Structure formats: C-alpha cells, structure tokens
Amino acid sequence: MEQLHPGARWVFRIGFYLKALILTFFLGVIFISSYISFTRAGISAAQFFIVVFIFIFLFLYLVIGEIYARLSYRFWKYEFTHNELKIEKGIIWKAYKSIPYERVQNVDIHRGILARLLGFSSIQIQTAGYSAVYSGRGLSVGSEGYLPAVSMEGAEKIREFLIKKISKHKSHNGM
C-alpha cells in the first residue's frame, strides 16, 4: 500500500485545529465567565490559575494536533489493485473502502494554496450512485474516493490510469 504525500500532515493538522476551534470557543466562554465571577469575588489566585490553565490547554491543544496529524498520515494508505482502489484510514476506528474501477465516473484533481506551496494535489474520485455521504456530522455531498495529498506527478498518473480503466470498461460494455 502507498502512503500519502508528507504534506498531508499539514492538511490533517489544519483540519484538526479548525474542528477543535468550536470546542475552544465554548471553553473560552466558560473560562471568561469563571474569570468574571472570580474577579467579582476578589480572588486573585483564581486569576492566576485560569491563566496557567489556558497556557496548559493551548500547549496540549498543539501537542494533540501534532500527534493527530502524524497518526492520520501514518494510517492513511491506498492501493491500486487489478480491479479496484483500496483505501485504508483511521487512527482508532479503521475504515476500509474498495472502489471498483467500473464504478468510477470522474477524477478531479485539486490544488489549493497550501497544496501548491507544499507540492501536492488532492484527488476526488467520483463514482456511479454515490452523491451523498453519511458522516458523523450528518449527510454531506462528496466523492467516494478521496486522497487528500498525492504528489503532483502522482496525481496526474493516477488520473491517467483511472481514465484508461474507465475507457476500457466502457468499450467492453459497448457504450
């Protein structure tokens, strides 16, 4: 199985921080309300405790984000077999996908600012009958096959490979 481009760590790292931003906001509201109630009571030790706790929280936030990025990168693998694309991902809960080439409809390559700076591309492989995905956040539109970071040259090779597989399948079926 192949591994993603090393730039994927940044994709996972930034994704983690954006998702955790909501949690940070709510914790910040709790801390500010605690701070206001403690200062009204005239407790300066509580102020010191809150400041120290915030710094510890930020440090842990950065450490956990880094660990998450490295583990996500390590455990996200893909392989192009004779008949299908296999994707394996997940740190605690593993997800295994097998995408038969005959279901592939389109291959999109995306290169955002971060991807261009770090030299990778994201690939979205759209398949027949796959227009919505159920995730932990509910129903969302997406592609069944997603590779978040592949080298630019690798992305072009993958697209060419899949296009050839699509055209072979269509010619065998008389389309």
Key words describing this protein structure:
three-stranded antiparallel β-sheet; 9 strands; four-stranded antiparallel β-sheet; PH-domain like; 175 residues; alpha+beta
Number of domains: 2
Order of strands, widest sheet? 1-2-3-4
Q: Specify the overall morphology.
A: elongated
Secondary-structure element pattern, one letter each: EHHEEEEHEEEEH
Q: What CATH first level of the largest domain would be assigned?
A: Mainly Beta
CATH topology of the largest domain: PH-domain like
Poorly predicted runs: 137-141
The counted number of beta strands is 9
Alpha-carbon distance between the termini?
32 Å
- CATH architecture label of the largest domain: Roll
What is the alpha-carbon Rg in Å?
22 Å
Counted by DSSP, the helix tally is: 4
Round the mean pLDDT to the nearest integer and report it: 83
Structural class: alpha+beta
Tell me what portion of residues adopts beta-strand conformation: 25-35%
State the major sheet: 4 strands, antiparallel
Q: Level of helix content? A: 40-55%
Describe the overall structure.
The protein is α+β, with helices and mostly antiparallel strands. The chain folds into 2 domains: 73 residues; 92 residues, PH-domain like. The protein contains 4 helices and 9 strands; from the N terminus they run βααββββαββββα. The strands form 3 sheets. Strands 1-2-3-4 form a 4-stranded antiparallel β-sheet.
